Amino acid sequence: FKYHHTEELEEYLRGVHAAYPSLTHLHSIGRSVEGRDLWVLVLGRFPTHHKIGIPEFKYVANMHGDETVGREILLHLIDFLVTSYGRDPVITRLLNNTRIHIMPTMNPDGFEATKVPDCYYTRGRYNRNGQDLNRNFPDAFENNSANIQPETRAVMDWIKNETFVLSANLHGGALVASYTFDNGNPVTGSLKGYSRSPDDDVFIHLAKTYSSNHASMYKGTGCDNRQTFPEGITNGYSWYQLEGGMQDYNYVWGQCFEITLELSCCKYPPEDQLGKFWRDNKVALIEYIKQVHLGVKGQVTDKNGNPIPNAIVEAKGRPHICPYRTNEQGEYFLLLLPGTYVLNATVPGFKSMLKTVEIADNTGNFSALKQDFSFPEVSDQIRSRVASCPKIPLYQELTRASAAVKPTVHILVLVTIMLVIFK
């Protein structure tokens, strides 16, 4: 248990890949401002590519360079997964049915710039250009004027190129599991101090899954007497509002549910405490990955069985402001808690297809419920246009639209009253 600087980190990851070449795939998704690789180690039975039906999961740590615990415990998680495969039946089934992406550091420059470790704050929080990477993503609520950094761009491209379903980003400076939304407006309930997503119930479950399996997070005592978090979780906006956060970007534009895990009161604790941090988080890290198998998954195909990309598949009553669409293989993944749902599959230009599904808790079976859709009137010549959601403040537009509707309603009421009077 020690801190691994850039060269040691790379050497460790290369060593794991060399020892377990069929179970791992090591690649860089880009470079930092100073040219350091942003390494990702992928683990699973098919580590080099996406396999139909197998969901994609990711952990990202060290986004703030001086928040270091996540960086090190992810290295121990890697070691635990590869050494347990084939020996531990649960880990074996997990890796056979999940593709797990682990990025130990998103901000290697910030980590190297932190010369004097501190519990509270150093300049190493930021990247080499002095930018806070967790304020650097497009925002669904307001225009984010920050210049997108190389590290942020690399992660945005990574999200675009994979079908991520579930994720967590690991931070330090508090002890809590925080969930979407981090920003908000009246449409999402900001006037009441809580910014609610359409999948608020799922996010609460995900946060509780981590906190309840952590050695002490579930107690909710926080890091001092002034701050308490019931059950060790919080809505991001309720805690403090932030613009350009990574978890909101994942959810809105990446179709990936992400929560933020604050794992240590001290941002950069002494090395001799790292062993305890690993033991405190080990079970929670594994139990959280299993949640990628919540809900329902399937394929949308045409009359010849060919996949239809960019079809919209969502559960009725919980529409996403950027509709969730199928990938190139026609696949969709929806995280839903056990219950009865009506799924609505839509291929633009054709009649929607509705199916009622009963979802059980299948996380223990490492497979979400499978529900396919076949559109008999769609031929393989017809393909819906590539649909990309604009990187604009979408909820801001929704607020304007709802505000624009209100005067119309008032006018209608007045006209009705006038007609009654004249009659």
Automatic annotation (TrEMBL):
GO molecular function: metallocarboxypeptidase activity; zinc ion binding
GO process annotations (BP): peptide metabolic process; protein processing
Superkingdom assignment: Eukaryota
Alphabetized Pfam families for the sequence: CarboxypepD_reg, Peptidase_M14
Peptidase M14 domain residues: 2-292
Active site (UniProt): E262 (proton donor/acceptor)
Keyword Ribosomal protein: no
Keywords: Carboxypeptidase, Glycoprotein, Hydrolase, Protease
Annotated Gene Ontology cellular component terms: extracellular space
InterPro entries found in the cross-reference section: CarboxyPept-like_regulatory, CARBOXYPEPT_ZN_1, CPM_N, Peptidase_M14, Peptidase_M14_domain
Family, as annotated: Belongs to the peptidase M14 family.
Protein name: CBPM Carboxypeptidase
Lineage: Eukaryota, Metazoa, Chordata, Craniata, Vertebrata
